[in-house]
Write a structure and sequence with these properties.
Rossmann fold; about 65% helix; about 600 residues; alpha/beta; four-stranded antiparallel beta sheet; 3 domains; six-stranded mixed beta sheet; ABC transporter transmembrane region fold
Amino acid sequence: MPGGGFGGPRARGPVAKPKQFTATLKRLWSYLGQERKRLSIIFMFIAASACLTLLGPYLIGVSIDAMTAADGRVDFGLLETMILILTVAYVSDALLSFLQGWFMAGVSQRVVKSLRQSLFAKLQKLPLAFFDSRKHGELMSRLSNDIDNVSNTISQTTVQLMSGSIAITGSLIMMLVLSPILTLATLITVPLVYLLARTITRKTGVMFKEQSAQLGRLNGHIEETISGIEVVKAFNQEEKAIGEFDDVNKRLYEVGLKAQIWSGFLMPLLSVINNIGFAAVAIVGAVLALKGHITVGVIASFLSYSRQFVRPLNELANTFNILQSGVAGAERVFEVLDEKEEPADPPGAVELRDVKGRVTFEDVSFGYRADVPILKEVSFISEEGSSTALVGPTGAGKTTIVNLLTRFYDVTGGRILIDGRDIKEYTRDSLRRCFGIVLQDTYLFSGTIRDNIKYGKPDATDEEMLEAAAAANADAFIRRLPNQYDTLLSENGGNLSQGQRQLLAIARVILAKPSILILDEATSSIDTRTELHIQDALLNIMQGRTSFIIAHRLNTIRDADTIMVIDRGNIVERGSHEALMKEEGTYHRMFTGQFKNLQEVME
């Protein structure tokens, strides 16, 4: 997009409520579906590892029985064989566990990379109205913190869910084979584990959602405060900023503490339930052994299997607890992905080429809210190559006209034409390429001065860039910098003055050579001496181009072909400077009032 760029703080809006847990979990699983092949390999590793794990207790039981034969002899041959097999099994299990982690790390990072790319790409397609109603820091929190939560959840829970399911099934089968009676003694703990996990995760689910929301608010406050740090210091509001941060941080601390305490209850209470189960198995096993129904080795094997059965149950309960945090983050990500994008170009939309620049507004109406109209049936024509100045009080609708012309918003009534054709019939990309925009609050990107000037025309030659910088009167101050055009800029050009940033924005527009020029208070941040040079540069690039100028300093638009006075969404006056001064209406009062104030200041 050629021009001065858009960005900076905007109107703030509330954080939307998250969606349902189950629907979000299914949607998150659909992203994992892209990794089916690798997940199949991981599942094979897990299955093999589970088999080896299930083999261990059985071999231990055989080993114990080899040492406790009825005749008192130890079967050393069998014992050595069991020890050798156990060693191979445990080493193989460790290797398989390593491979599981290796492959799962790749899967989780690829899924998160895809999710992060989808979210960032979505942000580029959303209309300006979306960003007008949300804190930038809160959106960044979704792109970073929430997706990090998703990453941790995928890497921690996927393997546990797979391995836990296999371990539970396999252990249950082996326990039934060894002793159905002892199996019943073990299963008494299952309903207790289920009820405990369900109770705690219901509590933590709500808390983790609120924790994500509070973290987003905290990031929004940090971003807002750091972006406006000069204003904070200028008005001595450091203590207030600290106080507001403390309030948000305290709310995050409180909800985070509750979530962690409740989730922390789970494992200790599960351990108590498990110990009850082990005690039941030990008592019942001892009775059966005394009666000669089972051997000591069977009891040892069974205790190991019961531990393997209960441990995955505990892990699954804890995994579900972890899922609450990850799904809370995923809900906030999917919230943005489900936002309505800018309308697609209609079928048959054409490229806007060879722009002449005749702009027509026909009974255009618009309101950011349906019940609050901003423009009311506005009609005017700006001829090819003409300059049109828009003046009027703040909130009258001047910038709204520009936003509608560039289709950052769409009209709610009437239509706008360029070269005799409705702008909705043009592709949005080709329409915006014909505009060059310089705003009062310009935005520069991190990188070199060269990169920022070429932002609107990356394929421009260095000679073209130097000509544009010279035309904008930026070349002189750039040459004085240590690295000149290769000087690195901090975020939004923070290491330059406001006037220097504005000069670079104007150079960026000059290089893009737009067909229609929009200047929104383009020289308001520049000192009077520099403004004179800038006015000459702007007059040069305005020659032969349709131009729209929004200005509060009326002396800067005296030479405009048409001046339109906008008030409460209506054009109340229009004409040249001389004609409007003769009418002695609103424009006359505004101009003479400014001139009088200027004289008083000079005196």
